[in-house]
Design brief:
The complex is a heterodimer of chains A (646) and B (369). By secondary structure, chain A is of the alpha+beta class. Chain A has 23 helices and 25 strands. Chain A folds into two domains: 189 residues, Penicillin-binding protein 2a (Domain 2), CATH 3.90.1310.10; 358 residues, DD-peptidase/beta-lactamase superfamily (Beta-lactamase, 3-Layer(aba) Sandwich). With 369 residues, chain B is mainly α. Classes of the chains: A alpha+beta (646), B mainly alpha (369).
């Protein structure tokens, strides 16, 4: 192995072959050189002696001259390091409104080195802090491997009264310190909680990882949502100071000081006012509202309802709190915008319509007849309108959401051609948002069914797919991309949350640009026919989306009612009479203005009833706020003013 | 049968000093790892195992004529560069530096070996490239390149202490073999002018690291704190020390890295001025005996190699002792034979083995061909 590296020329080799004897070549010094080298050795020896003399002198100085002083300092061991965590950066909306910020909070810590009797002290503290001594002990034990001069945090975010109480008795309790540290403050409560994500105290494993290099024990890091994705940008740089303390642990002098540095501020594409309106409209319900600008994919609202309590996560959840969150029928934990998967219901007819137009399986002006029933095989598929729609061409079919017309389209197209278009609109694959755990949904094909269920595809199932029932699964985010693509002429934008990241000095650190991930396989002309139909859904008499009509702006949209179970028993009943978990999901997807769309929205309300009556009014509230804010000069003033302030 | 002249020419005093230092090191590590809480104290045992292994390697090193190493230098050098590259890709990261290569439970620090490999390569280069009246600028390009490659790789880990040590060794050896005045001034000027240029290439966090290396008081939470705690430990030892196993600074964990970089602080605290001076004298003897080996070798490769090894050991101990005594910035350079470290023990004892080898084979030249 050594020989492969043998690049030394032969004449350089030290081994010499003389006859049969191998001998080592010798290059000796000539006499003149020897003298020169001896002079060098003398100089080197002098240098070495000087260096060692310096060490001798230094030891003499430290141990003999200053020895008593250092001995005293070592006995008192009074040097401490106080860490000051850097505040996390703020999260702001597109107009510069602060949504999440850092505020100062007080915590009570303990320096073991200064403690006389730790048992007595913890008992005393437990009565002052109203915490059990066992819980305090736990914190001390958890930090047993840390140096004794490092403060151990016992109690976080204590109120002003407790701080005053501790301060009063502090001279009796050497080793107890009060520290100020930044804490997350949610300006609008739990608004957009899933998008922001909650924080959690860093654990031992994460401390060792590369990701959290500047984070110390006891600090908080993003656990999910944007707080986690942008942890590196938001996290502040901790500082601290080296201080000398007296016997009671009070600072007597400061030797060095590194000020903590805040994290960077993140400006979102979100609009706080729209977000608030959306969440208010969803009050008491479970579901998702997501709105984006179809011209660039910027997210305007991102609501998953009900919200989680971000503040509660800061204090740490108890086991009971966790289990009540997990068992809540409204499912507050997942971010329903990307993790909720639902059948799309009739909103899927947009895709069936696009496929029918593009594949030319029907002349859009040619009427079909809807009697309210559609016999297929040995079954009869029903239209939601039992009396039937009579003679329907494509425009009327989408406006009134005629099931029979789309059953026929599905039959003519077949499941695999439908799947091709569904994929083309971005269904069945993640939208590649930055957030974690995005669900992909499901676009069924005949091959998929054979593989997954080991049963061949049934023709009747195609009919269900064509009207958005059956195996179909989509997320609200996927549906807002569908309607955005229809609105903007076919571009599938990557959803974008963050406009820019601004450093402390006000400089832009990162600016984000829209990304187009693809185009839908539908030509502009056919998309126009679809937009025209969707405008009819909202604005024409008998349209199913009338509840989203605005007086000022023309809105286009599509309703959807996703069946959870197909039980004839529940068909005629009042919604409230059906058990919650069997109620239909209500969908509404919309865009406006129809002529030049600026906003696209998807609303899903879980287990609530019809899309037209439940989901459309939610979308209407958001759209109304959007356009009134846009036209009101006062709002515009606030907007520009706010942007300049920050 | 072993030639009797090997025995008569053997440098027994050098071996004695090294053994004494190793024993002191183990004794001191026992105290550094000893704690009042009674947790397991295994550092000194592990150091003993490493010393045993290093001793075996040292005997192997004695068994062949050191002049063969001049031929092996390119392979040794290439091997050490390969391990340095490997450590950047598959190395273990401990407290922010990626310095260790693991083979099962064995962990090795290639930058330690790279020091010796670089010394051997430089000695071999100067031996082969013989000039009569000092080396010119063009002759120094190759040695500069030989050092620059491991320097950059070690810097990347990052291990500032070891990479600076490589530069110190290069400078010492170049000055020793002789350099033309013009070449000396040019390379000095080049070195000084390139500093601002390199500085501008560094990233912000790298600049910060260098700054806190040069001015520890700017890092009162890290090295600045360590420096003052070390001074307190040394000073509080006074004349006779606090006694073995009774150093309060080390027992209460005020000293950082007390097994490795600050092992001397523990010794100074517990044995006081008397113990510290004894240790300093032992090192002084080690350096002088090493220089003797270099001086009395009648053959150039032996002189160059011995001098390079002495320079390597000298700068390590000078930087470490300077750091412990608060004369130098805090950089992670171990104290040979006193600090805990398997790689350091192997490198040091292999180097000592080479010194002994050079010394005991010097008689071969007395007869001449």
């Amino acid at each position: 192995m050594v020989m492969i590296l043998g690049f030394l020329p032969d004449k350089w080799s030290i081994v010499r072959q003389t006859g049969s004897k191998r001998d080592l070549r010798i290059r000796a010094f000539d006499p003149a050189e020897i003298e020169e080298y001896h002079r060098r050795f003398d100089r080197i020896t002098v240098f070495v002696i000087v260096v060692f003399a310096v060490f001798f002198a230094r030891l003499w100085y430290l141990q003999i001259i200053k020895g008593d002083e250092y001995l005293k300092r070592s006995e008192r061991n009074c040097l401490r390091i106080q860490y000051m965590p850097g505040p996390r950066g703020d999260i702001l909306d597109r107009h510069g409104q602060v949504l999440v910020q850092s505020r100062p909070s007080f915590s009570i810590s303990l320096v073991r080195e200064d403690v006389k009797d730790i048992n007595k002290l913890l008992n005393r503290l437990s009565s002052l802090l109203k915490k059990s001594p066992a819980s305090l002990w736990e914190k001390v034990v958890a930090a047993k491997n840390m140096p004794r001069y490092m403060p151990i945090r016992l109690c976080e975010d204590v109120d002003a009264d407790t701080v005053a109480l501790i301060e009063m008795y502090r001279f009796e309790m050497p080793g107890v310190t009060i520290e100020i540290e930044p804490k997350r403050n949610y300006v609008y409560g739990n608004m957009a909680a899933h998008l922001f994500g909650y924080l959690g105290e860093i654990n031992e494993k994460e401390l060792k990882g590369e990701l959290f290099k500047n984070v110390r024990l006891g600090e908080f890091v993003g656990r999910c949502g944007l707080e986690k994705v942008y942890q590196a940008d938001l996290a502040g740089m901790g500082g601290g100071r080296q201080v000398e303390v007296d016997a009671a642990g009070r600072v007597t002098s400061v030797y060095g000081d590194i000020p903590p540095v805040s994290g960077n501020n993140i400006y979102l594409t979100l609009d706080a006012d729209l977000q608030r309106v959306a969440e208010d409209a969803m009050a008491g319900r479970s579901g998702a509202v997501v709105a984006m600008d179809p011209r660039n994919g910027k997210i305007l609202t991102w609501a998953s309802c009900p919200n989680i309590d971000l503040e509660a996560f800061l204090h740490g959840l108890t086991r009971e709190e966790w289990s009540s969150l997990v068992n809540d029928p409204l499912r507050p934990l997942p971010d329903k915008v990307i993790q909720g998967q639902y059948p799309p219901g009739s909103t899927y007819k947009v895709i069936t319509m696009a496929a029918a137009l593009e594949e030319k399986v029907i002349d859009p002006t040619a009427p079909l007849y809807c009697s309210g029933h559609y016999p297929f095989g040995n079954r009869v598929y029903r239209c939601w309108e039992e009396k039937g729609h009579g003679s329907v061409a494509m425009h009327k079919a989408i406006v009134r959401s005629c099931d029979v017309y789309f059953y026929e389209m599905g039959r003519r197209l077949g499941v695999n051609r439908l799947a091709h278009y569904a994929r083309g609109f971005g269904l069945g694959s993640p939208a590649r948002v930055e957030l974690e755990h995005e669900k992909t949904g499901l676009v069924p094909t005949s091959d998929w069914k054979l593989k997954r269920h080991k049963v061949p595809w049934q023709g009747g199932e195609t009919l269900s797919i064509a009207v958005g029932q059956g195996f179909n699964l989509v997320t609200p985010l996927q549906m807002v991309r569908v309607i955005s693509a229809v609105a903007n002429g076919g571009a599938l934008y990557r959803p974008q949350f963050v406009e820019k990241i601004i450093g402390l000095d006000g400089k832009i650190i990162k600016q984000f640009k829209p990304i187009i991930d693809g185009r839908v396989p539908v030509c502009k002309r056919n998309l126009e026919i679809i937009r025209d139909g969707l405008a009819g859904v909202v604005n024409e008499p008998h349209g199913t989306g009338g509840a989203c009509r605005l007086s000022t702006v023309m809105v286009g949209g599509k309703t959807g009612t996703a069946q959870v179970v197909r039980l004839p028993a529940y068909r005629e009943k009042n919604v409230n009479a059906i058990p919650y978990k069997y109620r239909d999901h209500a969908w509404f997807i919309a865009f406006a203005p129809v002529e030049d769309p600026e906003i696209a929205i998807a609303v899903l309300v879980e287990h609530s009833g019809h899309g037209g009556s439940i989901a459309a009014p939610v979308a209407r509230a958001v759209l109304e706020e959007y356009f009134s804010k846009k036209s009101s000069p006062e709002a515009a003033l606030v907007r520009t003013g706010g942007a300049n302030d920050r | 049968m072993i030639d009797r002249r090997y025995i008569t020419n053997f440098d027994w005093p050098l071996l004695g000093v090294v053994l004494l230092l190793s024993m002191l090191g183990v004794l001191n590590l026992y105290s550094a790892g000893y704690s009042a809480t009674g947790s397991a104290n295994t550092v000194y045992l592990r150091q003993l195992y490493w010393l045993g292994l290093s001793g075996v390697i040292m005997i192997i090193v004695l068994s062949f004529d050191y002049r063969r190493i001049a031929d092996w230098a390119p392979h040794i050098y290439a091997g050490s560069i390969i391990t340095l590259v490997a450590v950047l890709f598959v190395g273990k990261t401990v407290s922010g530096s990626q310095r260790w290569l693991g083979f099962g439970s064995l962990v090795f620090q290639p930058s330690e070996l790279a020091k010796l490999a670089t010394v051997i390569t430089l000695a071999s280069y100067f031996y082969h490239k013989d000039v009569k009246k000092g080396y010119g600028l063009s002759d120094l390009l190759a040695p500069a390149g030989i050092v620059l490659l491991p320097f950059i790789l070690v810097m990347k880990e990052p291990d500032l202490g070891t990479s600076l040590l490589l530069l110190f060794v290069l400078a010492s050896m170049v000055l020793f073999v002789g350099i033309k005045w013009g070449a000396f001034l040019t390379s000095l000027g080049f070195g000084l002018t390139s500093v601002p240029f390199i500085w501008s290439l560094l990233k912000d966090y790298q600049k910060k690291r260098v700054e806190s290396f040069l001015w520890p008081e700017r890092d009162p939470l890290g090295s600045g704190y360590h420096a003052i705690q070390s001074k307190i430990a040394v000073g509080s030892g006074k004349i006779l020390g606090k006694g073995y196993l009774s150093g309060s600074q080390s027992k209460l964990n005020f000293l950082p890295e007390q097994h490795t970089d600050f092992a001397f602080s523990v010794l100074a605290e517990e044995w006081g001025f008397v113990g510290s001076i004894l240790l300093i004298i032992l090192y002084f003897l080690l350096i002088l005996l090493g220089l003797q080996v270099a001086m009395r070798s009648k053959e150039k490769f032996g002189t160059f190699l011995a001098f390079g090894i002495v320079a390597m050991i000298f700068w390590q101990l000078a930087i470490n002792v300077g750091m412990v005594l608060g004369l130098m910035p805090v950089v992670g350079v171990p104290l040979p034979l006193i600090s805990y470290g398997g790689s350091s023990a192997i490198t040091t004892l292999t180097s000592i083995g080479l010194l002994l080898n050079i010394r005991m084979r010097r008689f071969m030249l007395q007869k001449g061909p």
